[in-house]
């Protein structure tokens, strides 16, 4: 297994997740154009927050390093996380800043529009002092999202956290998490991602996100908005994976939706990991569920193939449900799911 191995009995937490948290407002009107939506359901969202809930529901101790505003939305986020058993005592309240919000439409099979409200966002205010308070050295895995790098002080705090994790033998996993409207442009995003790759063991992302992470002069890339993900990014994905691996990570996990995923190793070997066919209701959150399942297997010492199959199973379950964090499966649910569809 790649990464710096640690002994379970030395670490309090299996995973520590750093980055976005928010209130997700999911359309209750399935298949209805966004402008025709009549009502929404409220859930906790944000990729690192979702993954922390997913890992905890699978049965591992986890902690979330995010920030909320001194507002009722922040109270909503923290209350849900506490109910789920995610450690929340390292979540600072940033006065003068707001807990963020995302509105989500659901028009299967291929339209899932997202609208982000992250101006004056509390989690962008995470700083190095917040990182120093968090139990990074007491966690087996430090996982962070690429969006963390979009603004200061969160950018420098995240890089500092990844360096601290590496120094203390905590394995570092990056969820690329490309959100175009959070950046000045794709080359800014690619430059920021590449600046931290020397600290990272495993990178997880879609084909579009991988191409975005490798973007920069003199490369030419094209970005178009999509209803399925935040953007479509063209490029030579295999070439770009090699670029990423050359900068430090040992593994790139390429998420491929219903096709499962591919595991790309630094030795140029590639492993196809099939998914689990299901009827799709809502793809939003499937990638976070994949991340939670993959991390579960990784921490348990499973090989990468089995860990990725676990991720694929979790993602397949979540796409049949309405929300994301609220829809994360338990370990028993995953085992029941795979028992009728083939082993992990």
Please summarize what this structure is.
The protein has 344 residues and is an alpha/beta fold. 32% of the residues lie in helices and 20% in strands.
Describe the fold and architecture.
The chain contains 10 helices and 16 strands. With 344 residues, the chain is α/β, with parallel strands linked by helices. The protein is globular. It has a domain at 47-66 and 120-339: Ribokinase (UDP-N-acetylmuramoyl-L-alanine:D-glutamate ligase, 3-Layer(aba) Sandwich).
Strand elements, count: 16
Q: What would the average pLDDT be, to the nearest integer?
A: 92
Radius of gyration: 18 Å
CATH superfamily caption of the domain at 47-66 and 120-339: Ribokinase
User: Major β-sheet, in short?
Assistant: 8 strands, mixed
Strand order across the largest sheet: 4-1-9-10-11-14-15-16
Give helix % range.
25-40%
SSE sequence, one letter per element: EEEHEEHEEEHEHEHEHEEHEEEHHH
CATH architecture of the domain at 47-66 and 120-339: 3-Layer(aba) Sandwich
Q: How many distinct helices? A: 10
Choose one word for the global shape.
Answer: globular
| Percentage of residues in strands | 15-25%
SS content category: alpha/beta
Determine the CATH topology of the domain at 47-66 and 120-339: UDP-N-acetylmuramoyl-L-alanine:D-glutamate ligase
Overall CATH class of the domain at 47-66 and 120-339: Alpha Beta
Distance between the termini: 17 Å
Point out poorly predicted stretches.
Answer: 225-229
Task: Produce the secondary structure layout.
Elements: E1 13-18, E2 22-27, E3 40-45, H1 47-58, E4 62-65, E5 68-69, H2 72-84, E6 93-94, E7 100-104, E8 114-117, H3 128-133, E9 139-145, H4 154-167, E10 171-175, H5 186-196, E11 202-206, H6 207-213, E12 223-224, E13 232-233, H7 237-245, E14 251-255, E15 261-265, E16 270-273, H8 286-299, H9 304-318, H10 331-339
Parallel strand pairs: 1-4, 1-9, 2-7, 5-6, 9-10, 10-11, 11-14
Antiparallel strand pairs: 2-3, 7-8, 12-13, 14-15, 15-16
